[in-house]
Amino acid sequence: MNDTEEKKLALSHMWIAFGAFLIASFMGAYQVLERSGFLPAIESSRVYFASMSSHGVLMAYVLTVFFIPGFGYYTATTSLKQPVWNIKLAWAGFGVSLLGTVLAAIPLLTGAASVLYTFYPPIMAHSLFYIGATLLLAGSWVWCVIMIVMMGQWKQANPGQPVPLAMFATVSNAVLWLWTSVGVAAEVLFQLIPLAFGWMDTLDPGLARTLFAWTLHPIVYFWLIPAYTAFYVFVPKQAGSYILSDELARVSFIVLIVFSLPIGFHHLYMDPEQAKGWKLLHGIATFVVTLPTLLTGFAVTASLEIAGRLRGGKGLFGWIGTLPWRNPMVLAMILGLLMLMLGGFGGIVNASYAMNAMIHNTAWVPAHFHLIFAGTTVIMYFAIAYYLWPILTGKPLFSQNMALLQLWIWFIGMTVLSTAWHILGLLGQPRRISSVQYNDPLTLAWDTFELVMIVGGLMMLGSACLFVYNLAKTQLNTTTEVYKGEVEYAEPIYPVTRLPEFLNDFKIWHWVIAAFMFISFGYPILQFFIIETFGSSAWGY
Amino acid sequence: MHIDPLEKKWAYVILAMAGLFVLIIMIDAIFHSINPPSNVETINSTSLHLSEEFAEDNLGVQVDDKGNITVRIVAGRYGFYPKQITVPSGTPLTFRWASMDVIHGIHLPMTNMSTMIIPGYVAQLTTNFPKPGDYPLLCNEYCGMGHDHMWSSVKVVAKEHWAAPVKTASKGDSSHE
Which member of A206, A507, B13, B121 has the lowest number of beta carbons within 10 Å of its beta carbon? Predict the structure, then answer.
């Protein structure tokens, strides 16, 4: 099958993603230096908060909203062996997202949208920021529709056949993203844009936070699912092994998307606008969503063990040494899982209802989500890029050694950075400050950890540069050597020939999600229209 | 379904683990009343100074007839009003917070005194500081360019050395109402 156009589509998406990533990496390094207070010359809250807002938006929204569709389109076309449906529409979606990114970047970089990536009202950004964000989001919905249509087409052409696991996982993410984005879309369209344009005088910040919480948890799984997809469908093959259970992998993806949605109030534990019963309900469901991650961790580690033993590893731990550590995909997953364990532990503390009071909005929180996002998620984006780049460009990877070094530096830098960051949180340092102005003995304990954070942050910046350099050199290489490899998907130990419909389709799961969302968000949103509330007018910063 | 017997065992282990965590949280919430601050109560943040409760004279520490201590503090860019309070250790204290502008958050490090202060809502929580000392009170939600400077302190003195402030709600001057 000629997939030249699909390759171009995937590469274009991923270059925007990694371009945004590189810019944001420099901002991250600047921020860790600025906030330490060791360099008084660069201290400026205006620059810092503009940078932090841009860093968050670029990493959380631009990197992901371009990488995930880019990867998704190519996964769809290679796993289903059919061209991308309506590729012109796909390019249109890409264009809309790109336009949105540029529109949002203008106020962000000029300090007119220093509202951080959570943009909680009533502090308001320039209206262009909200327009840009809406377009960025709208462009990604095109991808969701195309993924769902392609799976439908394939099922029609192959009645009764199990949808390939890679595609099933990709569509689960498209379904998740549609549901996820409803909350923030409602907030932006019905509250923020009307207030920014002056069509409305006030808004209710409590309702805004509730709607944002709708999005804020499942969006994390939107970012993470491509990493899990690679764990299941790429790593076993790269390691010379098999998927432990195709069906249980599907179960994991389904539980992930169903239970990551109705649990957003664990971000609102400390908020006054929701009552404790709702918080407890969301808290309990939060523990359910740990299950598919724990199941995935077991299954993919088992695949590695099989690989290690097939390669001659013996004894309880002997298989670890015989793993192909020099394969970037295998290495990235091992390092990614280690960071997932650390980040997951911190996450359980955050999720633990009243215990959240101890760490809420402290430095512990960004330490936690950087481990899961920059750690597990982005390290797998690196691995996927290293794997796909030769296939997409037709040229061999510029340097495998550089790739391995880059992954190790990223892992060590992340561990160093986040360990110090977690400790700062426990020592009471708030997140989201640009400098330490508290004249209190408490802050004396912070300096050492600020220094450690700088070391970690600079390592990560170096690693980010190596990554983009390697990709650029691969593509710009004038070598005559042609790379002819194709994407290879892992096979399950026991091939599946038939599947019950609930493991091969998402129709029924839409209903389950709708019911859960009605239960967990129905009244909490409705209450704002029942009780007497008082709006807030817009504030600058 | 193809499920490895070991994976099945693992599934039971993780179910039991998540179940245990949930059970502990529920026992604490239901039987020990350990909950995050969740008293849903609205207030007009644009006219706090005109409200009876958060008018300037009524802010700070107050003791009612039964000896219950209530602390009312207004958060606004970039400070807390009143600036300093003194409270007794080892005593239940009910804090009531209101914002006069944007979202703020407060935390007394090393204690569980933590809540978001959302404009339009009164944030209420009851806590108890076991150890006397000077505790910094930090704004922990980005509230604008002066956010770094938004902090204050809470003095916790031993119960036996603490005396209720002279001015209490019941003696408030009626001319302010």
Answer: A507
CA angle centred on A407, ends A457 and A361, rounded to 5°? 40
Shortest distance between the Cα of B21 and any Cα of chain A, in A, equals 8
Q: Tell whether A427 lies on the interface with B, counting CB pairs under 8 A.
A: yes
The DSSP-derived string for A418-481 is HHHHHHHHHTTPBSS-SS----SGGGGGGHHHHHHHHHHHHHHHHHHHHHHHHHHHHHH-----
What one-character DSSP code corresponds to residue A518? H
User: What's the confidence (pLDDT) of residue B175?
Assistant: 45
Helix A447-476 vs helix A400-426: angle between axes, to the nearest 10 degrees?
160
In 3-state terms, what secondary structure has residue B173? coil
More confident residue, B38 or A402: A402
pLDDT higher at A2 or A348: A348
pLDDT in tens, A171-192: 999 999 999 999 999 999 999 9
Chain-chain contact of A437 with B2 (C-beta, under 8 angstroms): no
Query: For the residues A321-328, what does the mean pLDDT come to?
Result: 97
Q: List phi, psi (to 5°) of A240.
A: 80, 40
Please indicate whether residue A432 is annotated as part of the active site: yes
| Strand B93-99 to B69-76 pairing | parallel
Cβ A410 vs Cβ A382: under 8 Å: yes
How far B100 CA lies from chain A's nearest CA (Å)?
10
CB contact under 8 A, A276 and B113: no
Tell me the C-alpha distance between A122 and A140, whole Å.
27
pLDDT at B177: 39
Tell me whether residues B115 and A270 touch, CB distance under 8 A.
Answer: yes
CATH class of B45-169: mainly beta
| Touching B: A residues 193-232, CB under 8 Å | 204-206, 209
Q: Is A234 a catalytic residue?
A: no
What does the pLDDT read at residue B135? Answer: 95
Q: Are A531 and A524 in contact (CB under 8 A)?
A: no
Residue of A nearest to B32 (CA): A354
Average pLDDT over residues B5-25: 96
CB-based contact A527 B40, cutoff 8 Å: yes
Whether A498 is catalytic is no
Is the N-terminal amide bond of A40 cis, ω within 30° of 0? no
Q: And the tokens for A437?
A: 């102005």
Summarize the confidence of residues A143-163 as an average pLDDT.
97
Q: Which residues on chain B are in Cβ contact (under 8 Å) with A492?
A: 2
- Is A368 in the active site? yes
Q: Would you state the pLDDT for residue B167?
A: 60
- Span B106-122, average pLDDT: 95
**Is A361 in contact with B123 (Cβ distance < 8 A)?**
no
Residues 6+ away with beta carbon under 8 Å from B75:
B81, B97, B98, B99, B100, B104, B106, B117, B139, B150
Task: Say whether the peptide bond before residue A205 is cis (omega within 30 degrees of 0).
Answer: no
Write the CA distances from B153 to A288, A343, B100, B108, integer angstroms: 40, 32, 19, 9
Smallest Cβ distance to A361: which of B14, B40, B141? Answer: B141
In terms of pTM, does the model score above 0.90?
yes
The 3-state secondary structure of A21-75, one letter per residue? HHHHHHHHHHHHHHHHCCCHHHCCHHHHHHHHHHHHHHHHHHHHHHHHHHHHHHH
Q: For chain A, list the domains and their CATH numbers.
A: 4-530 (1.20.210.10)
Q: Do A354 and B28 touch (CB under 8 A)?
A: yes
Mean pLDDT of A315-336: 96
